[in-house]
Amino acid sequence: MKEVYLDYAATTPVDPRVADVMNACLRLDGNFANPSSSHQYGKEAHAIIEKARKEVARKIISDPNRIYFTSGATESNNIAIKGIVKKGDHIITSLTEHKAVLDTVNFLEKNGIDVTYLKCDSKGIIDPLEVKKHIKNSTRLVSIMHVNNEIGVEQDIREIAKYCNESEVLFHVDAAQSAGKVLLNLKDWNIDLASITAHKCYGPKGIGAIYVKEGIRVNGLFHGGDQEHGLRPGTLPTHQIAGMGKAYELLNVKEESKRLKKIKNKLWEGLNKISEIRLNGDLEKSSPHVLNITFLGVEGESLRLAISDIAISAGSACNSESTESSHVLSILGLSETLANSSIRFSFGRFTKFSEIDYVIERIKFEVNRLRSIMGKTPKWCRS
Amino acid sequence: MIYSREVINGFKLLEKAPSISDKNEFFFEAESEDRSLGVWVKCQMLIEKEIIKEVNFFIFGCPDTLVSANKIKSIIQNQAIHDVKYIDMLGIRKNLNIPVEKMGKILVIENAFQECLKVFFLKR
Prior knowledge:
The structure holds two protein chains of two kinds.
Chain A lengths: L3 E2 L10 H9 L15 H20 L7 E4 L2 H10 L7 E5 L4 H12 L3 E5 L9 H7 L4 E7 L11 H10 L3 E5 L18 E5 L10 E5 L25 H13 L2 H19 L5 E4 L9 E6 L4 H7 L3 E2 L1 E2 L1 E3 L4 E3 L1 H5 L4 H5 L1 E5 L6 H22 L9
Parallel strand pairs in A: 1-11, 3-4, 3-5, 5-6, 6-7
Antiparallel strand pairs in A: 2-8, 7-8, 9-10, 10-15, 12-15, 13-14
Helix pairs in contact in A: 1-7, 2-7, 3-4, 5-6, 8-12
Chain B lengths: L4 H9 L13 E8 L4 E10 L2 E10 L2 H14 L12 H7 L7 H21 L1
Antiparallel strand pairs in B: 1-2, 2-3
């Protein structure tokens, strides 16, 4: 059976050009050395890292000297939040953040930090004025994601940054999903801290970065060396960083977002011909690479098995005993049943238009088949 | 979610249950559900002279539940009521290699079947 990968928001394949660059950093005849070493091998590895730093900074429009490599966006989020906030401080975040932010903030909350969780509207959008409204004297940090990983909605981080700036409150953006898909301009938008990763944009897993605006002091989580100015000690993984640099160098946000938008529209138009479906999120105020849809009256597990030749993400995490609904869909007002009947499609560089035709036909067929097997289900199965 | 080979194969072959069109005095139907497990089952039967002539299950449920219902259907169709009054649900689960944690979902099918029999006995 044909297989289609539509789970780019979970991770992307490494671009072969990125893999080549990484491979060259692993061998004796390449740049395998410790970049902190003073010999020629080390200097060459160091140069590769600095080149990568510049590439990353260039794509998110920021200062390369303020980019620090980490193991990924989760670590960057932890540093940005735990490394800034101290006892007595207040944090503002939203209920639809990724677990990497929510769990970190929850941890701090249990340790006495005051936290405000902002609600979103029915489409998942945060009103920037809500941020402004909740800022108080003790507010130290606002942490809001740029693009939501489940429903793809894009928050107005420019406006939020403006309010934070006016109140002299630090603003952290989890930009794990946005880099490479939507425009990101940390410098002009006055963002204080940002978390990015490589594996969502055709780089390797296990590498990411945090951007820290000049003049902001962040405490690192680890101790044990001066690498990355002590913010993130440990031997720098040259091959990973070189891979991230190459991945960012290859990003063409303008062209790629245009192509992804066409793919998204095509899929939405095709699936929208199926009766009783619901779009989760907002078609316009969203990243072009994510589309989240609920198929009413179709049990989620059965739907996922029926289309198991299409790699997608579900609106729930299932195990044999229970189903844990997506916290994002739940906040949008979806019941556990509806969240379970929801699917996130996400596209990327290697998605072909012909694959979308195939996916539309497969899903139409399977949804109709399952609905006929399931019959006229009661209201709770579809609301 | 991991499904057994038996369930995957059975699931692929599932088709729309032909609706029982002749809803005469021999037609009986009943429903059962467990919202906490996300399962709803409607059982329809044509019972003539104590023989289950036709049976249909409409199910909102996971693949294990759907395939189990199909198995039950194949067991009870054209059988005398008294021979299938008690279905070996444990045997069906084992036969389809369904994890024990799914037993609760499968039992909703049996509940719907038993409810349908109740309707039959009440009307008889």
